[in-house]
C-alpha cells in the first residue's frame, strides 16, 4: 500500500500530458465559475462596505450629539453651582445682618 501511495503522490507531482490537458480544460471551466464567484463576492463586499460606511456615519452623528449633550450638561451644572453659591452667599449675608 505504501508503494501505491507514493505512486499517487508522484503522479500528482509529475502529471503526464493527458492529465495536463484534462486539467487545463477543467481549469477553464473553473475560471468561469471562479469569475462568477469573485464577482458575487465583490458585490457582497461592496454591499458590506456601504453598510459599514452608513454605520460609521451614524456612529459619528451619535458621537457628535453626545459631545453636545455633555457640553450642555457641563454648562447647566456650572449655572446650577453658581446659583447655589449665590443663594448660600445671600443666606450668609442675611444671617450676618
UniProtKB/TrEMBL annotation:
Residues 1-39, 78-97 are annotated as: Disordered. Residues 28-38 have a biased composition (Acidic residues). InterPro entries: BBLN_eukaryota (IPR005374). Residues 81-90 have a biased composition (Polar residues). It comes from the Eukaryota. Residues 1-17 have a biased composition (Basic and acidic residues). This is Uncharacterized protein. It comes from Polyplax serrata.
Amino acid at each position: 500500500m505504501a508503494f501505491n501511495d507514493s505512486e499517487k503522490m508522484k503522479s500528482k507531482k509529475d502529471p503526464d500530458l493527458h492529465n495536463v490537458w484534462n486539467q487545463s480544460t477543467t481549469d477553464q471551466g473553473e475560471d468561469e465559475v471562479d469569475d462568477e464567484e469573485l464577482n458575487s463576492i465583490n458585490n457582497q463586499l461592496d454591499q458590506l462596505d456601504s453598510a459599514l460606511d452608513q454605520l460609521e456615519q451614524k456612529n459619528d452623528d451619535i458621537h457628535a450629539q453626545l459631545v453636545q449633550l455633555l457640553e450642555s450638561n457641563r454648562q447647566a451644572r456650572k449655572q446650577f453651582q453658581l446659583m447655589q453659591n449665590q443663594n448660600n452667599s445671600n443666606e450668609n449675608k442675611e444671617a450676618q445682618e
